[in-house]
Amino acid sequence: MKVIPRIITILTGFTLLLAGLVACAPSSQSSSSSSNTTTLTVATVNNGQMVQMEQLTKQVFEKDHPTIKINFVTLPENDLRSKVTQDVATNAGKFDIATIGSYETPIWAHNGWLDDLSPYFGKMSAQDKSSYNYDDLLKPIMSSLSYQKHPYAVPFYGESSMMMYNKQIFAQHHLTMPEHPTWDQIKQFAQELNDPAHGVSGIVLRGQAGWGMNMAPLDTMINTYGGSWFDNNWQPQLSKPAVQQAVTDYVTLLQKYGEPGASTSGWQECLSLMSQGKAAMYYDATSLAGVLETPSQSKVAGQVGYAYAPTKVTTNGSRWLWAWSLGLVKSSQHKDAAFQFITWATSPQYLTLAGKTFGWANVPPGTRTSIYQNPNYQKAAPFAQIALDSINTATPDQPTANPVPYHGIQYVGIPQFESVGQQVSENISAVIAGKMTVSQALQQSDQLLSSQVNKSNTAGY
């Protein structure tokens, strides 16, 4: 969570990350207009899956539910987190549904900012329960969205991380990507495939500051290199040798073989380069692969290979686990309507609708077992099995080689992480830009952690 200890918004800045879906569902008590119409406000993040949901909401949901209107508030990920967190933490009541992530959900639930969804599922009719098929939801994803074993959000899409590579570029250089590569192999590939004279980067990676931006892939490197943010006594560990080596390798990949302007590149910029054939490799979220396989969006559709996340000394924490999900905000005045929208947008029927409308490769992935058994999806998504395996084998409760007091792979599941994670990410971006050394950045980061995180203010998380 992007929250600074001691600040009420403490636990949910990250939530804005997910603030992609603050939905208002139909309610018998309308808060809007002179008619019998309920308007729900959804905070949403500006990525492709959420944009598609907004389109289908207007085209299908609102036509099928004429007394419910959905107002989407769409913002960049970082902006969304801060604004949604502030609203929910102060019970301002602007949003009915929040698009939140695996980081925010248990923290918000602990803070009493979200409604437990169990009673709402319990009230569903037998027919609606059968249609929704709650047990079809992927268990690792639902575990990340639960607090005290109760669901406080349901996933719109889920993801892990994997290596994506241009098969034609590899073939031209007579190279073969292993199914389970190591980071040492990736470094060698990046060096051999980097071709700036022809506008091709050996690898593209997130360099833009943000605990959900550059720290997401970098944290998996730190984990698999044997490092961690803290030891079991909450003592900072970022300046330790394993972390130093992981960060050095990440920075070297970007400075020597990465995209131009890497310190400001987010996943959008990296995905664009990969889809234009201007990158040999791209390590990022499994959920982005659908874009690469869609001819209208990608020049390399059908030419991309997929491999598991690279490793170094341990597989623990080497691949992340995340879900953009819809949570019912406690202060909403239209909870039954909001729940109706939430279950529509996360249903098996929605996945079928999205597949038929936008192409099966673009179905929101990582939420249900059934989609991975769908022949249409299997045919359109050559990455499906690796993505599913990666989600099912991610280790958020054992994210590092050594025992640690926190859960989370690409984040530390404490409220303070929203703030300290952001500041550490800014140090890393400065290193990529050549404005700071790795040692300076990590020493400053450990000093920051020492001043803001301890046993007492992390208790209960």
List the helices and strands and how they pair.
Layout: H1 13-18, E1 38-45, H2 48-64, E2 68-75, H3 77-89, E3 97-100, H4 104-111, H5 118-122, H6 126-132, H7 139-144, E4 146-147, E5 150-151, E6 154-159, E7 161-166, H8 167-172, H9 183-193, H10 215-224, H11 241-257, H12 267-275, E8 281-285, H13 289-292, E9 304-308, E10 322-328, H14 335-345, H15 348-358, H16 375-380, H17 384-393, H18 417-432, H19 438-452
Parallel strand pairs: 1-2, 1-3
Antiparallel strand pairs: 3-10, 4-5, 6-10, 7-8, 7-9
Helix pairs in contact: 9-11, 10-11, 18-19
Distance between the termini: 11 Å
Q: What is the fold-level CATH name, i.e. the topology of the largest domain? A: D-Maltodextrin-Binding Protein, domain 2
Shape: globular
Mean pLDDT: 92
**What integer value in Å does the Rg equal?**
21 Å
Give me the side-by-side strand order of the main sheet: 2-1-3-10-6
CATH superfamily of the largest domain: Periplasmic binding protein-like II
Major pleated sheet? 5 strands, mixed
**What is the number of strand segments?**
10
Q: What is the beta-strand fraction?
A: 5-15%
What is the count of structural domains?
2
Describe the structure.
It is a single chain. This protein has 2 domains: 8-159 and 322-381, 3-Layer(aba) Sandwich (D-Maltodextrin-Binding Protein, domain 2), CATH 3.40.190.10; 161-320 and 397-461, Periplasmic binding protein-like II (D-Maltodextrin-Binding Protein, domain 2). 41% of the residues lie in helices and 11% in strands. The chain contains 19 helices and 10 strands. The protein has helices at residues 13-18, 48-64, 77-89, 104-111, 118-122, 126-132, 139-144, 167-172, 183-193, 215-224, 241-257, 267-275, 289-292, 335-345, 348-358, 375-380, 384-393, 417-432, 438-452; strands at 38-45, 68-75, 97-100, 146-147, 150-151, 154-159, 161-166, 281-285, 304-308, 322-328. The strands form 3 sheets. Strands 2-1-3-10-6 form a 5-stranded mixed sheet. A 3-stranded antiparallel sheet has the order 8-7-9. Strands 4-5 form a two-stranded antiparallel ribbon. Helix 18 (417-432) packs antiparallel against helix 19 (438-452). It is globular. Pfam families: SBP_bac_1 (PF01547). Keywords: Signal. InterPro entries: Bact_solute-bd_prot1, SBP. This is Sugar ABC transporter substrate-binding protein.
